[in-house]
Amino acid sequence: MKLLVTGGSGFIGANFIKYWLEKYSADDLVNLDALTYAGNPDNLNGFEKNSRYSFIKGNICDPAVVSKAIKGAEVVVHFAAETHVDRSILKPSLFLKTNILGTQILLEAAVKNKIRHFHHISTDEVYGSLNLKSKEKFNEKTRYNPRSPYAASKAAADHLVLAYHETYGLAATITNCSNNFGPYQHPEKLIPLAITNLLQGKKVPVYGDGQNIRDWLYVSDHCRAIDSVIKKGKCGEIYCVGGLKQDISNLEVIRKIVKLLNCRESQIEFVKDRPGHDRKYAIDWTKINRELGWQPEEDFEERLKETAEWYVRNEAWWRKLKGKNFQVFYRRNYKKL
Ligand code: NAD
Ligand code: TYD
Question: Residues in domain NAD(P)-binding (predicted)?
Answer without folding.
Answer: 4-307
